[in-house]
Amino acid sequence: MDRKRIGLLVLGGYDWVGGLYYTLNLIKTLAVLPDSEKPEIYAFWGNDIAKEHLDKLTYPYLHIQPYNRSNSEKYLTKASQMVFSSDPRARRLI
Predict the structure, then answer these.
(1) What pLDDT digit, counting tens, does each position of 22-35 carry?
(2) What is the mean pLDDT of residues 62-81?
(3) How far apart (Å, rounded) are the C-alpha atoms in residues 51 and 56?
């Protein structure tokens, strides 16, 4: 059986603890599904605080990887410029 795959950016920390707890609770909620319905989760952590919390989870299909912000932002910016003919960083200023 092929499991569904979910990718999550876990970027919250003490400065945005609500986002961190929200993401952790999503993963914990998926843990109550029957094993055959549990998706693989790829969690990309953005800081050591998020990684510490992810390491404590016991979800059986959790894959934890560091999130390289510089490359990801570069690709997102390029893709956004191609699709929307704009720069997403400029939208934050509006």
Answers:
(1) 999 999 999 999 99
(2) 75
(3) 9
Tokens of 33: 């599904």
d(CA 51, CA 43): 9
Sequence-distant (≥ 6) Cβ neighbours of residue 40 within 8 angstroms: 3, 4, 5, 6, 61, 63
pTM here is 0.69
Average pLDDT, the chain: 83
Helix (H/G/I), strand (E/B), else coil: 6: strand
| Secondary element (H or E) of residue 65 | strand 62-66
- The CA distance from 91 to 93, in Å, is 5
pLDDT digits (tens, 9 = 90+) for 4-13: 999 998 877 7
- At residue 12, what is the residue type? G
Nearest to 59 by CA among 1, 8, 18, 93: 8
* Lookup: tokens for 86: 């704009």
